Amino acid sequence: GGRDLGEFFRQWVYSPGHPILRLSQTRDDAAGATIVTIEQVQPAEWPVFHFDTELLVTHGGEGTRVPVSVRGRTTTVRIPGTRVPDRTDLDPDGWLLYQPADAGGSAVPR
Question: Which of 23, 27, 96, 101 could form a Cys-Cys staple with 91, CB 3.0–4.6 A?
């Protein structure tokens, strides 16, 4: 049997709008982690979208992909590591239909 695509169509075809995402990061030195927050800031009358994507976290030119499951208006991801990322990109392969919340795009530079 195939997958049930009902939720996909309800969310992406029959509902108004699209995700408008704001990406931010902070450092938790005590925990040795970078905290990345993904906020859905689209109008309240639009749905909160549920989707899976990735973050591409770059240190010194080398990237690590971190899977992310977004299920609410705010999603927080803890990325362990002793260094602050040079850059953090949401959906690095461009599969997700979304709008960045600001002109800064989907990347969080250091």
Answer: 96
